């Protein structure tokens, strides 16, 4: 296993951990304000190591151990971070595992690198969440404050208030996926908890409907929350990946 920091080209360094092994390489894409040292990422790393499977995990700019200011980040910036890490740290076919916002980043990456991405696994995947989950949920006074001040802090059940920048909302609109077909020809697997308080499970159905691939499977966990990081949730993730790796994803 190797770890390091990747200069994305502007002096901002992205922290990464890479484990060599057989292809296709599993790439974990964290969620909004999450990092590569969470339960899903570390559990997935142990799964990959036990199989001798290559795996890459990293932190977006402004997240975890990476450099940069979180408030400078947008969907476009973090998607570019993912491409920089993948292009410079991996070779060959890929299986992308994206959690929440990471599911959006995974789909954008699959569209950008169709020759390399063989499969996408979304864990409570949340494409378009800046519009549907943030902007649409704001009261008129909150929208006005965001547009005036450039940032809005909203309460979060996961810790300190969540900073939402005007740039995040406006840039997110340039990357919306659910209003048109999602051009992806690989295997798509969507895991979602039906007790998710943040991203409705019906969104998995919308993603499946919009994706152009016919190879789509959805697994719903009736009492699953947004994180899906309990031992049995992780076991579902591992079974999903194990099945993909036994198929022809190379």
Characterise this structure.
By secondary structure, the chain is of the alpha/beta class. The chain has one domain: Alpha/Beta hydrolase fold, catalytic domain (Rossmann fold, 3-Layer(aba) Sandwich), CATH 3.40.50. The protein is built from eight helices and ten strands. It has helices spanning 39-51, 75-89, 101-112, 129-134, 140-149, 166-172, 202-210, 231-246, and strands spanning 2-7, 13-19, 22-29, 53-58, 94-99, 117-123, 151-156, 159-165, 187-193, 216-221. The strands form two sheets. Strands 1-2-4-3-5-6-9-10 form an eight-stranded mixed β-sheet, sandwiched between helices. Strands 7-8 form a two-stranded antiparallel ribbon. Strand 3, helix 1 (39-51) and strand 4 form a beta-alpha-beta unit. Helix 2 crosses helix 3. The longest helix has 16 residues, at 231-246. The model has no long low-confidence stretch (mean pLDDT 96).
């Amino acid at each position: 296993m190797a770890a390091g920091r990747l200069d994305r080209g502007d002096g901002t360094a992205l922290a990464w951990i890479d484990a060599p092994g057989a292809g296709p390489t599993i790439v974990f894409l964290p969620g909004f304000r999450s990092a590569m040292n969470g339960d899903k990422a570390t559990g997935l790393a142990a799964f990959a190591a036990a199989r001798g499977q290559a795996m890459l995990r990293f932190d977006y700019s402004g997240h975890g151990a990476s450099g940069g200011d979180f408030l400078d980040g947008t969907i476009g910036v973090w998607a570019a971070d993912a491409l920089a890490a993948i292009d410079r740290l991996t070779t060959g076919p890929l299986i992308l595992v994206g959690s929440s916002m990471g599911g959006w980043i995974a789909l954008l990456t699959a569209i950008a690198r169709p020759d390399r991405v063989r499969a996408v696994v979304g864990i409570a995947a949340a494409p378009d969440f800046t519009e549907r989950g943030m902007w649409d949920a704001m009261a008129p006074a909150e929208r006005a404050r965001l547009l005036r001040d450039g940032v809005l802090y909203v309460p979060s059940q996961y810790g300190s208030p969540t900073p939402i920048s005007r740039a995040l909302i406006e840039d997110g609109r340039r990357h919306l996926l659910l209003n048109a077909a999602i051009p992806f020809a690989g295997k798509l697997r969507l895991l979602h908890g039906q007790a998710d308080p943040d991203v409705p499970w019906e969104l998995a159905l919308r993603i499946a409907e919009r994706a152009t691939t016919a190879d789509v499977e959805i697994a719903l966990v009736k009492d699953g929350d947004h994180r899906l990081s309990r031992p049995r949730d992780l076991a579902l993730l591992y079974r999903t990946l194990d099945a993909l790796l036994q198929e022809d994803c190379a």
